[in-house]
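Person: I keep going back and forth on a fold encoding question. Show me how you would write down a chain together with its backbone fold. Please set it down just below, with no commentary around it:
Helper:
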Amino acid sequence: MKKLSVLCVIIVLAVSTNAQTQNDGEIRGAVTDSTGRGLLGAHIDLLYRSGATSRFGTVTDVDGRYAITTLRPGYYSVQYTYKSYGTIIVSHVIVNSDNTTALEVMLHPADGKEIEVVEYVKPLLNFQGVKIK
């Protein structure tokens, strides 16, 4: 009986350790206007395949920055909206485990049109954290 108890404890520990190694990713970025000024209170929502808003989303801070964390790895569509500005939808955003996907968007004053980015391609070079002397 003691051996069975020890075996159960080992199995539980192995399963919990495996669950911890598969970490979530995140999407971070900024929403600005055409002058480069951050937009406070812009809405960022993840969309289901049907186009309906999911439970994941956030609003920008005073500098227009945002973060959506604890996302399962996969493809997402991200919708950006701000009062009296147009809506932008960025499709096929890739979120990888233990990674941050940077996504910055510029919104323009509304003219009654919705802009949809059909595919987001991650830049080939990443200059975040690079210091130029």
Strands lie at 25-32, 43-47, 53-59, 65-71, 74-81, 87-95, 100-102, 105-106, 114-117. The chain has one domain: 22-117. Residues 86 and 110 are 4 Å apart (CA to CA). Helices lie at 2-21.
